[in-house]
Write a structure and sequence with these properties.
Number of helices of chain A: 8
Largest sheet of chain B: none
Radius of gyration of chain B: 12 Å
CATH class of chain B: Mainly Alpha
Distance between the termini of chain A: 36 Å
Distance between the termini of chain B: 9 Å
CATH superfamily of chain B: ACP-like
Oligomer: heterodimer
Largest interface: A-B, 11 and 14 residues
CATH architecture of chain B: Orthogonal Bundle
Helix content of chain A: 25-40%
CATH topology of chain B: Non-ribosomal Peptide Synthetase Peptidyl Carrier Protein, Chain A
Strand content of chain A: 25-35%
Chain lengths: 215, 85
């Protein structure tokens, strides 16, 4: 049985961990500025962060905040840890950036560093690289945040070899963005700091609506 | 040469999004890849774009990149040798 042991929700330039806002910045900050400020509060040194596109940065931060203070990674085998993400915009935000760089044939300088992010599942790759996770992974593109899809897929993995999973929604489309990531562990392997919510639709919807956003 | 090296430092930091690196931390003689700045294969492609975009230099043979991008100084020397500084 899957248990949700921690979660992070990011939107409105605020970061909420387990329902409590742990970081917020002025609404006037752009997404890039907000992500940069949120990264600084984590007090980690990971230079590759600055090379990521907005979606990867958002997914990276959301996961880091969810992991912070937990024993999720040391408690679980990395080859049995899955990453299951979803969004609506796929990699459209970065696709546009790339398109703009090749629109003008007289100023044609497509950036390889931008081009590598023109797939949504690169977000999974960045998480896997950072934490050396080698388990199952999947990225779904759907019209809206669909807990049923994510839960069903994660449960099917847990019913096989998967021991733990990083699951959620990471969506960026211009200035519009939202990330909601929850950590799933199996009942045999949960730590005492967990929030202990069973992995089901009701829990995920409750946690998704838990945060009282201040702006 | 020193002025060109300083200019390149700024351009590399910007082009490669090295937000945590300050120009004064880059040793012109340190390797750009592996140790030193720790750049990767995508960064190598970005450096090729940088040379073309800012100096109008097209590297014809990718094998030359290994020598040209050995360090900041070898990059600057190559730009000079092409009469593009």
């Amino acid at each position: 049985m899957g248990i949700i042991t921690s979660y992070t929700h990011i939107k409105h330039n605020q970061v909420s961990v387990n329902g409590q806002i742990v970081f917020q910045s002025d609404n006037s900050l752009s997404l890039a500025e907000f992500l940069s400020e949120a990264y600084k509060t984590l007090d980690i040194k990971y230079p590759k962060f600055h090379k990521m596109d907005a979606q990867c940065k958002l997914g990276f931060l959301c996961t880091e905040f969810a992991l912070k203070g937990t024993t999720f990674l040391p408690d679980n085998y990395l080859n049995k840890t899955a990453i299951v993400l979803s969004n609506n915009a796929s990699s459209l935000d970065t696709d546009r950036t790339h398109q703009h760089s090749i629109d003008d044939k007289s100023n044609y300088f497509p950036s390889p560093a931008v081009f590598v992010y023109t797939l949504p599942n690169i977000t999974i790759g960045e998480l896997a690289i950072k934490h050396k996770i080698t388990g199952e992974n999947a990225f779904f593109v759907s019209s809206h945040f669909d807990p049923t899809l994510l839960i069903n897929y994660t449960e099917s993995l847990i019913n096989n070899e998967t021991q733990a999973a990083i699951v959620g929604w990471v969506d960026v489309d211009g200035a519009n963005y939202e990330a909601f990531i929850f950590l799933v562990e199996t009942s045999e392997n949960i730590n005492k700091n967990s929030i202990f919510k069973p992995l089901n639709i009701s829990s995920v919807i409750t946690l998704y609506n838990q945060t009282k956003w201040t702006h | 040469m020193d002025a060109l090296i300083e200019k390149l430092k700024g351009q590399i930091i910007e082009q490669l999004n090295l937000a945590e690196v300050k120009p004064e931390e880059i040793n012109p003689d340190s390797p750009l890849f592996g140790e030193g700045l720790g750049l990767d294969s995508i960064d190598a492609l970005e450096l090729i774009v940088l040379l073309e975009k800012h100096y109008g230099i097209k590297i014809q043979d990718p094998k030359d990149g290994k020598t040209i991008f050995q360090s900041l100084r070898t990059m600057a020397e190559y730009i000079k040798s092409q009469g593009k500084s």
